[in-house]
Records
---
Amino acid sequence: MAAWKDGEEKEKAIESAQESFAFLEKLIQGKKYFSGEDEIGYLDLALGWIPLCLEIVEEVGGMKLIDAEKFPSLLEWAHNFAEIPLIKERFPPRDALANYFHKIVGLMRSKK
C-alpha cells in the first residue's frame, strides 16, 4: 500500500512494512532458508515474491523498504532463493512485472 499512498499515510505504510520485514529478519537469522534446512520450505515459497517484486515496488513507489544494514539476513535469503534454478527459471521478466506494477499503482493513485 505504501507504493500508492502519500504523506503521512505513506510513512505509516512504510513503517508497517518494515515492522513485518523486521519480524522476518529475526526468523531467518542464522539460516539459509526459513525451514532451517538446506532446502526451501513452505514459508520460503510463500515469501518468494520478495526477491522478485520488492525492488520493483520500491522503484514504482519511490521509496526504500529494505536496506542491507537493517535486514542483512533477509536480503541474503532473497538472493539465495532467487538463485535456485527451478525458481529462477519461473520468475516472469522484470520488464513485464515493472509494467504491471506501474499500472496497478497508477490505478490505485487515481482512485484517491
Note: The two ends are 12 Å apart (CA to CA).
---
Amino acid sequence: MTFLNYIRDIQDPEHPYTLEELKVVTEDSIEVNDKKSHVSVTFTPTVEHCSLATTIGLCLRVKLMRSLPSRYKVDIRVAPGTHATEAAVNKQLNDKERVAAALENPNLMYMIDRCLEPTDYY
C-alpha cells in the first residue's frame, strides 16, 4: 500500500472531486522515510489564491494522523511557488500549537470531517 492510498479520497472543500482527481496530491508529492518515521506531503492548490489551502493541509494532516501509527512525524507543505501566501500556510500547517488550536474549532472540524467522509460515487 502506498501512502497516497491514505489521502487519495479526501474531498476538496470547494469542488466535488478528490484531491487526487484535482492533482492537488500525487504519488510524487509524498516522501516517506520509514526508518525515521517521517512523512512529508507537498500539495499543490488548484489556484494561487486558494482561500482554503490551510483547510486542505489540515485535512491531509488529520487523515494521516488518524491513519498512521503515532510514531510518524508528518510535515505538510504547499508546493513552492504555487500559493500567494505559501510561507504563512506552511507555518500554520507545521506549528503544533496552531494546528491544535485549529482542530479545536468545531466549524473547521465539521468541514474537515466532511472532506474525509468516504464517497459513494466510485
Note: The longest strand covers residues 38-43.
